[in-house]
Amino acid sequence: MTIFLLDGETVDFPPPRLADAVGLLAVGGDLSIERLVSAYRSGVFPWFSEGDPVLWWSPDPRLVLYPEELNVSKSLRRVINKQLFDIRFDTAFGDVIGFCARVKRKGVQDTWITADMIDAYCHLHKAGLAHSIEAWQNDQLAGGLYGVAIGRCFFGESMFTLISNAAKVALVALVDFLKQHNFSMIDCQMTTDNLLRFGAREIPRRHFLAQLATAVAAPSLKGAW
Q1: H-type helices in the chain, by residue range?
Q2: pTM to 2 decimals?
Q3: H or E segment at 65?
Q4: How many helices (H) does the chain have, and how many strands (E)?
Q5: I need a surface site. Which of 23, 84, 123, 224 has the fewest CB within 10 A?
């Protein structure tokens, strides 16, 4: 497989089917709003470490969570029913992505959310395309997640938890919101046990791309949520 080198002349991406065995498709380019939107519409996302060039991925299979297939455990449902957290949308995007970059996760040694990535996604947020879903407790941010919404697809990026179950409650709130607004899918990008427990499942890339094309053709729900 050929790894494509991107330049500044176009924001278009090579066909994702040309990615290598681990899903790496292209190297280079920038993190402009135009290129990021083109990437998501194409089924591609950036993922790289500090000091590396920008790397663009389209893995096969792809992990997807369909809102109607969300699985909420009995224990988590009890937590939700206790109303321990106040859920807010888009009130602290910068804080959420900052915590996602800093909070250590089990099995993860470093972060892929670099300073350039934070800057780029804050610009996407200002453009009304990137959103944060936040769980607050006693007016303190307890957990949350962020992602990008284009058409009727939500592209999940990262989540963090400072207080047990906070991010999970935020995720359930997000899915409820997406159901209300007729979103068809959540792109989870990379497979994790946590997302599998929530009902996400792997599908072949070709199926994902076909469903994505339909989802992103719909009008986007832009602006603050």
Answers
A1: 33-42, 74-81, 93-102, 115-126, 166-180, 193-197, 205-216
A2: 0.95
A3: strand 62-65
A4: 7, 11
A5: 224
- Within 10 angstroms of residue 78's Cβ, the number of other Cβ atoms is 10
Distance CA 143, CA 160 (A): 5
pLDDT digits (tens, 9 = 90+) for 172-203: 999 999 999 999 999 999 999 999 999 999 99
Going by C-alpha positions, the residue among 105, 112, 130 that lies closest to residue 52 is: 112
CB 132 within 8 A of CB 122: no
Alpha-carbon distance 43 to 15, whole Å?
9
d(CA 135, CA 85) in angstroms, rounded, equals 6
SS3 at position 148: strand
Residue type, 69: E
Closest CA relative to residue 61, chosen from 174, 205, 196: 205
